[in-house]
Amino acid sequence: MTIPVITIDGPSGSGKGTIGQMIARHLKWHYLDSGALYRVLTLQALKAQVDLHDEHHLAAMALHLPVRFVDSATHHRIFLHHHDVTESIRSEEVSRATSILAASPLIRTNLLARQRALALAPGLVTDGRDMGTVVFPKAKVKFFFIASAAERAERRYKQLQQLGVGANYEAILTELEARDLRDQTRPVAPLKPAPDAHILDTSGLSIDVVFQYVLEKITL
Ligand code: C5P
After folding, report:
1. Chain centroid offset of residue 108 CA
2. Ligand 1 in reach of 98 Cβ (< 6 A)
3. From atom 20 of ligand 1, which residue's Cα is the shortest distance away?
4. Rounded Cα distance, 200 and 76, in Å
5. Strands, DSSP E only, in 10-148?
6. How many Å apart are CA 105 and CA 126, to the nearest integer?
7. Is the CB–ligand 1 distance for residue 43 below 6 Å?
8. Is 186 in the pocket of ligand 1 (CB under 6 A)?
9. How many Å apart are CA 23 and CA 21, to the nearest integer?
């Protein structure tokens, strides 16, 4: 039996994670935040002081990454070994380092099987950069979200303020644009829409409007 998969790709801050989780809950399907896999690997490498350019070492770590996703009706928590790293993988340091590490073809290959193994009945909703192009090219419905860099930086700024973390809007915008460029120009699995993806610009749209748009396109 083929497990139905819905993919949402796009740059950070485009709303794909929020909507992906909402759709997964609505359908009662599994949810995979593929960026979290790359982030957990980066956190583990930073903790172990592994050189982020040591592709072979990192690729070996990727094969045995002790990551666990724990979902409840209201929460999505991420564990590295027994540590809850849901918040710590979102730091600016991890974000920057992750997009460097994610450019490695070897590391990406070693994370493929793990991502595909999460396509379990009754279905999977997943978000990332290459879910519709590389990981699940036969996905049933694909989306690609975009939003202006200014709005994405603004969302991130507000998010950090709510968390009580000091933040600088200009620094966030500069870092976000650098990260986009790295993700878009890497030779393997660059950030780009699949030819059959629904493309949506979420700038200025509320979460509810985006959620309704996505639901309407999902015909199962
Ligand atoms: O989506 P998120 O911002 O958490 O992703 C963090 C980083 O992980 C991205 O900047 C990108 O470099 C990498 N990533 C990737 N492929 C994915 C998901 C994330 O290369 N499918």
Report:
1. 13
2. yes
3. 102
4. 25
5. 30-33, 67-71, 76-80, 83-84, 124-128, 141-146
6. 20
7. no
8. no
9. 6
For 153-199, what is each residue's pLDDT tens digit?
A: 999 899 888 878 788 999 999 999 999 999 999 999 999 999 999 99
Pairwise CA distance, residues 155 & 172, whole Å: 10
Pocket test for ligand 1, best of 38, 130, 146 (most atoms within 8 A of CB): 38
Each residue's pLDDT tens digit, 3-59: 999 999 999 999 999 999 999 999 999 999 999 999 999 999 999 999 999 999 999
The first and second tokens of residue 139, run together, are 């996905």
Domain range list for the chain? 5-217
Cα-to-centroid distance, 34 and ligand 1 (Å)? 7
Class of domain 5-217: alpha beta
Give the phi and the psi of residue 110 in degrees, each rounded to 5.
-75, -15
Site to probe by mutation for ligand 1, drawn from 129, 143, 159 as the one with most ligand atoms within 8 Å of Cβ, is: 129
